[in-house]
Amino acid sequence: MQFNLADEFAFAPFHSEEAAYRFVEQCVWPAGPVCPHCGGWQHVGPLRGHSTRIGAYKCYECRKPFTVKVGTLFESSNLPMHKWLRAILLTALRGKSLDANELHHMLNVSPRTASYVLKRVRGESLAGLTSRLQRTAANESVPSSTMQRHLELK
């Protein structure tokens, strides 16, 4: 029996880009945004222009814009944040048994992108983010039986 894990994990933090950015911001900046360029946090504000990127901030100390992606594995990536979060969670659930071809089908991305994402996720130390994603998955609308099925798909 084949089912799509990407459809199963279309719950709260993963359903939109805005929600995904807010989730990552809470994980990376629990006390509020911090400028990755100068370390300033007192004079940082969100950019709210009509054509501004999602999650963009500006540091008024060094006058540089930034997002939560700067300095993380998400930097220099055009892949939507919610797909990154799904990939991290799926890698945490399936471990080494998840290959790029499966991820390609689950996230509906190209095989090359899936390979790139898998390589970056496995190369990073994501213990804090992974545990928070798993707790969120457990607290959201995904039943524990579904989570158990995903673990047994190895």
Main sheet record: 3 strands, antiparallel
DSSP summary, beta strand count = 3
**With helices defined by DSSP (H or I, 4 residues minimum), what is the helix count?**
7
Assign the structural class, choosing from mainly alpha, mainly beta, alpha/beta, alpha+beta, or little secondary structure: mainly alpha
How much helix is in the residues? 40-55%
Principal-axis shape = elongated
Number of domains: 2
Order of strands, main sheet, comes to 1-2-3
Termini separation: 14 Å
Strand content: 5-15%
Multimeric state of these chains? single chain
Would you give an account of this structure?
The chain has helices at 5-8, 17-28, 81-94, 100-107, 111-123, 127-139, 144-152, and strands at residues 44-46, 57-59, 65-66. It has 154 residues and is mostly helical. The protein folds into two domains: 5-29 and 75-152, no CATH class; 30-67, no CATH class. Strands 1-2-3 form a three-stranded antiparallel beta sheet, with no helix packed on it. A hairpin with a 5-residue loop joins strand 2 (57-59) and strand 3 (65-66). Helix 3 packs across helix 5 and helix 4 (100-107) packs across helix 5 (111-123). The chain starts with a helix and ends with a helix.
